[in-house]
Specification:
transmembrane; Bax_inhibitor_1-related; membrane; LFG3 protein; about 325 residues
Length: about 325
């Protein structure tokens, strides 16, 4: 690889990858979608909206280790965190020196030690989350009493889903709890336990070989994407509009697929949707990874380590669940 193929040096502040923008970016609506209080601004840099789908819902009528006979109902829409907002509802995307720069930052990355410490903290937290999730998946897959319990008691799944929903939105929408220690860690721990239970429950409906294969493929995909993002000069953070469209398309496709499969289960249709979702979440993983490593058009503030870990964790879990559905549907 030639010298020109490497990403630009973080210390070359005199010659940044992108020239400074005058006056900052216009204010986008929260999380990439227009709302009553946030009208669309001309020239807005759109952000990808994503609807995390922890996967298939348990079907108590399905035998253990078997393929669900039909697509479960579509999960309630949930917008993925795309950028932390300030207390006044504005983002600090590319803001100038005189503007609030709490959420996303440029100058913070000039300090290489701060950037490296932030990356280490994010990946340590994410690794702990993934270890908990893998432990849940292993117990729910190999321990037959636990496997039988979670399949017969689907109410616990829905309780965990409610906890997942509440903690997710608190961490995404509330800047205070997200940044205030130890509440941010407590909320993130509750969120991780809830999502781990959901992931383990979904995994209990598939055979052991499918679960292992999905775990291996997910690990390989994550390693390749991470290495690529650290080495490439391609800036995924400048493609916010594309990711926004992908998120909307995936959500609409999921609703249509759920309606169709609720009448008759069609394995190939299930496989197509799972494949599309896995690819989209892989692209989101690349986007979020570059937001964390910095030195791109947009980056996450070093104060948002919980937010960064949340983004990576949800991307990886969704990749795993969609790959698992793809493998399960193929059988």
């Amino acid at each position: 690889m030639s010298r020109s193929d490497f990403p630009p040096n973080y210390e070359e502040t005199g010659n940044p990858l992108y020239p400074p923008q005058a006056g900052g970016y216009p204010q986008p609506p929260p999380y990439g979608f227009s709302g009553p209080g946030y009208p669309q601004q001309p020239g807005m840099f759109p952000q990808p909206g994503m609807f995390p789908q922890p996967g298939m819902h348990p079907n108590p009528n399905m035998p253990m280790g078997g393929l669900p006979p039909m697509m479960p109902p579509m999960m309630p829409p949930m917008i993925s965190p795309n950028e932390p907002l300030n207390q006044d509802g504005r983002n600090s995307y590319g803001a100038g020196k005189d503007e609030d720069t709490e959420g996303f930052a440029d100058s913070s990355w000039d300090n290489k030690s701060v950037r490296h410490a932030f990356i280490r903290k994010v990946y340590l937290i994410m690794s702990a989350q993934l270890l908990v999730t893998v432990a849940f998946v292993a117990v729910f897959t190999f321990c037959m009493p636990v496997k039988s319990f979670v399949i017969k008691n689907s109410a616990v799944y829905w309780v965990s889903y409610g906890v997942f929903f509440v903690t997710y939105f608190v961490l995404v929408c509330c800047e205070g709890p997200r940044r205030r220690y130890p509440w941010n860690i407590i909320l993130l721990a509750i969120f991780t336990l809830a999502m781990s239970y959901m992931t383990g429950t979904i995994s209990s409906y598939y055979d052991t070989k499918s679960v292992f294969l999905a775990l291996g493929i997910t690990a390989l995909v994550c390693i390749v994407v991470t290495v690529f993002c650290f080495q490439t000069k391609v800036d995924f953070t400048s493609c916010g509009g594309l990711f926004c469209v992908l998120g909307i398309v995936l959500f609409i496709t999921g609703i249509i697929t759920a309606i169709v499969l609720s009448f008759k289960y069609i394995p190939w249709l299930h496989m197509v949707y799972a494949a599309i979702a896995a690819v989209v979440f892989t692209l989101f993983l690349a986007y979020d990874t570059q937001l964390i490593i910095g030195n791109r058009k947009h980056s996450i503030s070093p104060e948002e380590y919980v937010y960064g870990a949340l983004k990576l964790y949800t991307d990886i879990v969704n990749i795993f669940l969609n790959i698992l559905q793809l493998i399960g549907a193929s059988k």
